[in-house]
Amino acid sequence: MTSAADRVPAPLLVLAGIVSVQFGGALAATLVPLIGAGGSVVLRLLFASALLLVFVRPRWRGHSRRAWLTVIAFGVALGLMNFTFYSSLAHLPIGVAVTIEFIGPLSLAAALSRRWLDAVAVAAAAAGVVLISEALSTPFADLEKTGIALALLAGAFWAAYIVLAGRTGGEFPKLEGLALAMVVATVVTLPLGITSAPTWSPDILLKAFGIAVLSSVLPYSLELLALRRLSAKVFGILLSLEPAFAALAGLLVLGQVLSPTQLVGMALVVAASALVLGLGARQRPDPAEAAST
Fold this sequence. Notes:
Layout: H1 4-7, H2 10-28, H3 32-56, H4 65-88, H5 94-101, H6 103-111, H7 116-133, H8 145-171, H9 176-193, H10 202-227, H11 232-238, H12 241-253, H13 260-279, H14 287-292
Helix pairs in contact: 2-10, 2-12, 3-4, 3-9, 3-10, 4-8, 4-9, 5-7, 5-8, 6-7, 6-8, 6-11, 7-13, 8-10, 12-13
């Protein structure tokens, strides 16, 4: 039986998740300075796990060994992706960190490419992300090597998250796999942020709850549903819209004027996504590609 979510085009689910993440990111920016990256990630995942366990009520029995290995790997990637990226923000400007992290999904899209048009789209998206973030205006010598390493690691976990999310969606019905993976992610990151617990005031808990909904529950649920019908290659390039949405939100909400360079970058990113939507999303992935997702 087709659910309401299944009737929504998969690319729209991805875009809705991107918008949700932007609001969650704005809220998270006010929390990390208070309790650190570890505490912020742990609180976010604790609330997200609790919400998903209540509303999804996943089955803990009856799953194959392969399904459990998949969901555990998905949870580990999910938790460490969040922790390494939040940690990189303590060393790098956010635009630079996002650009470096994005090497992960872009590399995945390139690795799964079957046509020269896909390679053109990946190259355009990569150039656009660099221009939007203005990473080229930050001298490399001024960047902390620890931050670069953390952002690259976050990108690697992001690529793993994309692949494992698709496999988890195939092994578990509805959002059961996500709920179980969120518990795994919480357990993995708990030692990294539990020491900040004495500082968890009601205001901090409220912010963390909002971040959990906007940055975890909604986008991860939408992405998992989308990846059942969308190849990892297409999904990876669609994610290149995230910097463009952030730049547009800055213009509309904060009154930040975009530079000509950023406008060119936005155009490149949108063009890459349009190329994939128009020429790739309507085609069924071949068996080899489907197996990889």
